[in-house]
């Protein structure tokens, strides 16, 4: 039996929790016996909160003095007078259930007079910034002053272990150098993998559409990227495209992949794996909200254990087999170069846990990200038929109606890349991110002649590329419009070229996404094949579960919110609530 997480949490904090009451008690004993029992109990009880408040105030004063003496300022607090920021946490949870991600940011910006603020949650400062200059400091020029940090590792440890995604310092360098060789140009331009999975996916879509039902693009994209990623990582894919795709929940044939019908999920290992993998990510994200305090929400049972068991059951045998194969090959010839990432990794270590962690990191980093990008691109194509028309025109003129796209084709397709970029600008896959400051530092001033911002050591720092990439002052008055041409016409020079840090869907600096080129290739390849086969896309709102419809009152709102048809949610990555259901027409080959 594992020790319940809540016990471990309290065990670690016991000395801290008892410090106040014990001090108070001994002081009273030392002072003599004139004090009544009620007073003793009250002072012992109050001593904890009192000590805590004193320490907190001391910290605030210390930071204030440190900021002033270096000619800097502290980021302003947001408006929230509730104890421990409970109000903000409550609003955050409500917003996730029913709201629009990053709603209410304008209000905060207005109140704080800028895009930098301190959201103090559970008595801990979180410095939030939406300033490109600050992101440059965090991710690139001041890289060594920030890390993912203990909190990130504690929260994501069960999911990611020590892999490249969660590690810091020398361990991160080790992991990064171990995985990096696998992302060279010739590795990532091998399209055989994408080809047969895309073919499978399109074939399934066609069959279902011919039956007269709409299809869920998000589910399809998740299968395509899971199969491609597992093949890329360990040579044999998990074949999630082989099992039946879902019917709309409203149809008589419904037996959805991710929600009900536990029975079919039990029978289908790929579906079980995919479900467990999403569940583990969802648990990790709910932990991220509470940070180090996550065990309070899972006091008696660790909710990630069950889904992770399913995930490990799938990966462990694959890892074991790779190690065995290496030994078998070693007898035949030395210095065998691996074909898959796992074979490559086995050459640097045979530690099965380390190998599994690395694989998990890469699966988490590489799977839902590209799936989400594809889903949101298709969402935009369904909403902007003119963009769809131009994109198909580019596909047909550059690649033709049948040919398999090559690396060079993809490189030359400017409009396709602009469509992907514009989607990643408005709907960046990783909408929020966090870092921890290792030492006290400053962020540059925002206004000319203004003061820099002081960031104390060991402070949580959060940023939202989504909110930043929607700022009108950075992207122009039409920032909330979906318009791929902004990456091609004079707006490119006017905004992005002058200030590259306003567009960071893949982050920047030494920890920039390792899979960026892989992802552009994978997404481009799929979209080209997809558009060779389908000529029109319309949302099937009748198949979309009712709770996923954008609420009626959104329609009167300005900006993107007013245009949204389907609600979004986020765990590590953003996704469409309830899938993205569409109807499509097959391309008429004789015409094209
Ligand atoms: C459109 C798709 C993708 C997007 C938007 C994306 C975005 C990101 C972002 C924002 C990070 C930084 C996370 C952080 O440091 O906090 C990241 C890291 C990473 N990504 Fe991607 N990613 C995508 C696809 C992929 C793919 C397909 C792979 C691999 C096959 C991949 C592998 C990685 C790895 C290994 C890291 C960790 C790098 C490190 O910490 O040194 N990504 N990605
Ligand atoms: C899309 O964004 C990437 C990454 O910032 C950039 O390298 C590329 O030039 C952009 N392409 C287009 C056509 O916008
Ligand atoms: C599944 C399917 O029909 N795929 C087709 C998509 O389009 C290409 C080009 O026309 C065909 O080669 C595929 O067979």
How do the strands and helices of this protein lay out in sequence?
Elements: H1 5-31, H2 37-69, H3 86-98, H4 105-112, E1 116-118, E2 126-129, H5 132-141, E3 146-147, H6 149-160, H7 169-179, H8 185-188, H9 192-210, E4 215-216, H10 217-234, H11 262-267, H12 269-290, H13 305-332, H14 341-346, H15 352-366, H16 368-383, H17 385-398, H18 407-412, H19 414-426, E5 432-437, E6 441-443, E7 453-455, E8 460-464, H20 465-469, H21 472-475, H22 491-497, H23 516-533, E9 534-539, E10 568-570, E11 574-576, E12 581-586
Parallel strand pairs: 2-8
Antiparallel strand pairs: 1-2, 3-5, 4-12, 5-8, 6-7, 9-12, 10-11
Helix pairs in contact: 1-2, 6-12, 9-10, 9-23, 10-15, 10-16, 12-13, 13-15, 16-17, 16-19, 16-23
The structure holds protoporphyrin IX containing FE (HEM) and 2-acetamido-2-deoxy-beta-D-glucopyranose (2 copies).
Short overview:
With 592 residues, the protein is of the alpha+beta class. It has helices at residues 5-31, 37-69, 86-98, 105-112, 132-141, 149-160, 169-179, 185-188, 192-210, 217-234, 262-267, 269-290, 305-332, 341-346, 352-366, 368-383, 385-398, 407-412, 414-426, 465-469, 472-475, 491-497, 516-533, and strands spanning 116-118, 126-129, 146-147, 215-216, 432-437, 441-443, 453-455, 460-464, 534-539, 568-570, 574-576, 581-586. The chain is built from 23 helices and twelve strands.
What does this structure look like?
With 592 residues, the chain is α+β, with helices and mostly antiparallel strands. It has two domains: 1-69, no CATH class; 161-429 and 505-591, Orthogonal Bundle (Cytochrome p450). Helix content is 53%, strand content 8%. It has 23 helices and twelve strands. It has helices at residues 5-31, 37-69, 86-98, 105-112, 132-141, 149-160, 169-179, 185-188, 192-210, 217-234, 262-267, 269-290, 305-332, 341-346, 352-366, 368-383, 385-398, 407-412, 414-426, 465-469, 472-475, 491-497, 516-533, and strands spanning 116-118, 126-129, 146-147, 215-216, 432-437, 441-443, 453-455, 460-464, 534-539, 568-570, 574-576, 581-586. The strands form four sheets. It has a five-stranded mixed β-sheet with strand order 1-2-8-5-3, with helices on both faces. Strands 4-12-9 form a three-stranded antiparallel β-sheet. Strands 6-7 form a two-stranded antiparallel ribbon. Mean pLDDT is 87; it is low at 256-261. It binds protoporphyrin IX containing FE and 2-acetamido-2-deoxy-beta-D-glucopyranose (2 copies). Protoporphyrin IX containing FE binds next to α7, α15, α16 and α23.
